[in-house]
Design brief:
Blueprint lengths: L5 H17 L3 E12 L2 E2 L3 E8 L4 E6 L8 E5 L7 E4 L13 E4 L4 H4 L11 H16 L7 E8 L8 E8 L11 E7 L6 E8 L4 E11 L11 H4 L14 E2 L5
Antiparallel strand pairs: 1-2, 1-3, 1-12, 3-4, 4-5, 5-6, 6-7, 7-13, 8-9, 9-10, 10-11, 11-12
Length: 252
């Protein structure tokens, strides 16, 4: 049997990830995140992450010291199409922990808290981004970057080796990397999903770290898992502000 080519290995990784992900309606994972925002490296955050495809829904709960007590939920085209947040201590100088805040995904406050929109959260977005770059490369279009299969590599986050792909990003390929950079995507060879993403700027400085582990699927997630009114029941006098965006909530 002839050896598998680079192109075939890159395509096979994508096909297997697509096939596996297509069979998953919902999943739960632990997510670890490090980001550089506005030139400043933010500390690592550890979160419980729940995802549901239909309707598209995400839920985050911060588990460790950084952001402890914060919860975020967002469902596309539901609950005013806003991101609903249970604030942690220090999130706002004017609001204590336990307050609820509802903001549009494109609001300045939301965009200043992460490198990516909440609509880009989850493993599916990683698969889609990789697939778009791979499709373009196979057409001879390198504007989205060049891909190289790096083989299996050992990472401290996982007990077994992961399959790695390097994506070289030219200047202009992504707005968050105006001068280009490099991204490495790691796939779990057991369940075939991308579980770790490392992104570096043109000076090889880490600007993104997203790690999904302890992934559970299939799982049963329903509307109550993503309903802010069920997650954080409102007091009888909800104290809703004039815009309907701020809800008074006693701290636990």
């Amino acid at each position: 049997m002839p050896p598998v080519t680079q192109a075939a290995q890159l395509r096979q990784l994508h096909q297997l990830a697509v096939q596996r992900y297509a069979a998953i309606d919902s999943y739960i994972a632990r997510m670890r995140r490090r980001e550089q925002i506005n030139g400043k490296d933010k500390p690592e955050e550890v979160m419980l992450f729940k995802f549901r495809k239909q309707p598209w829904s995400v839920y985050f709960k911060w588990l460790e010291k950084e952001g402890a007590g914060r919860e975020v939920v967002f469902v596309k085209r539901q609950y005013e199409s806003k991101i609903h947040t249970l604030l942690a201590a220090g999130d706002s100088p004017l609001m204590p922990a336990g307050k609820q805040l509802a903001l549009a995904p494109d609001s300045l406050l939301v965009r200043s808290a992460s490198r990516h929109s909440i609509t880009e959260a989850g493993i599916g977005n990683i698969i889609d981004g990789y697939g778009e770059a791979l499709d373009a490369l196979e057409r001879g279009d390198r504007r989205l970057g060049n891909l190289t299969y790096l083989g299996r590599q050992k990472r401290p986050e996982y007990p077994t080796e992961l399959e790695a792909v390097e994506r070289l990003l030219p200047p202009g390929a992504e707005s968050a990397l105006p001068r280009g950079g490099r991204r490495v995507i790691f796939f779990d060879p057991n369940h075939r999903l991308p579980v770790l993403v490392l992104t570096y700027d043109e000076q090889a400085h880490e600007v993104e770290y997203y790690c999904y582990d302890r992934i559970q699927f299939p799982v049963k997630l329903d509307d109550d898992d993503f309903n802010p009114d069920k997650l954080w029941p409102r007091p009888a006098q909800n104290g809703r502000g004039p815009t309907g965006s701020l809800i008074s909530q006693p701290a636990n």
